Amino acid sequence: MPSETPMKQLVALTLLFVVCISMTGCRRGAGKAPPFPTPHVQVATPVTREITDFEEFTGRTTAKDSVNVIARATGYLVSADFKEGAIVKKGDLLFVIEPKPYQKLVDQAAAAVKQFEAQVAGAKADNARSLELIKTPGAISKQDVDRYETALEQATANLESAKAALVMAEINLGYCWTKAKIDGKVGNYLVTPGNVVTRDQTLLTTVVSQNPIYVDFDIDQRTFLRLQERDGKAKLAGSIPPEVTVTLGLTTDEGFPHEGTVNFTDNHVDPLTGTLRKRAQFPNPDLKMTPGLFARIRLPISLPHQALLIPENALGTEQERRFVYVVNSKSAGDKKDPAKKIDVVEQRVVKVGSLQGGLRVIEEGLTSNDRVVINPLPTLQMTIQQNKGQVVIDAPPPSSKEGSEPSKDAKPPVRPDQPAKPARSAMSEKEAAQ
Fold first, then answer.
1. Residue 366's domain spans which residues?
2. pTM surpassing 0.90?
């Protein structure tokens, strides 16, 4: 047991020595932080382009014409002469209702016409004889002559009534053949052959037009007022507001490939929803669109005007604010070389507008000469705080196809001790067109 005491003392002294060394090392390094690396960024000036502001809305496609095919005659349904869901033309036969009873009514009306034609012929002869006899004194009384004239007029009226009854009977007979009233797509059989249908009551099927097609959508009050402002400016400029062209995208479409025009605006704002109903018309020659589809509408809300645009990924968000990083040149403070400049980044709050083909409109906060960081890094804010905002501007990436090797002529990054490089020119036409 006594031999264990020196061993324990040796272990305790060793641990004490290690702790002291560790504490000494911590105290030496506690006040020194490693230097913050200068970040490398790429910059570009905003693109200046003539644009039109747009707003996007959702709507539903509707048919320009929609017809409920209702039976116009009472009787047994003999046949359905179309394929369900097919495209039909105006005048195509859809249904046949048993025509025999109506044909008999036509025959009966035709016989009545012949009967009254004979009566008219006899009345004309009697009246003609009475007019000859009246010339001989005492041969016929004036009362008899009037009676023959009245009989002729009655026979003529009965003939006209019989002819009208014949026309009506022929019309009712024609209702036995139900035809399409418009061009469009026919629905399914709501009544199948063999069933009895009732005049003006039984719905047989429906037909909806396909080309052109309508889209109904609602705009908010703010957009309505902006449209009023746009039209007012056009009138002040002495030009009539142009026909409003809108674009449409379906669920499977990328962007808004279909173009149409607004052909109706409601006469009041709905006080319950605060929206105004509009309708646009689109050509549909390939019948890709059908009534009832969900649609996205892109509506122009301003006249063409010049605007500044930057890439969407150059924007940052801080709570409700949108900002960008702008690179400015300032003196490096080198007494030996007073003309020496360095690039310093600053955060600038901007007011953004609509998205135009991948580029975001900047309404306030930038000028066309500002150098905007287009690849902002998460460390840029820390750079502003700890490194006085100094950055290194990299050369633009080589314009090569995706997957190809970088160009051998690509310039190396700018060093902090080199003069500041001007921003590269506004984005290429290819980028601006995206």
1. 40-51+307-433
2. no
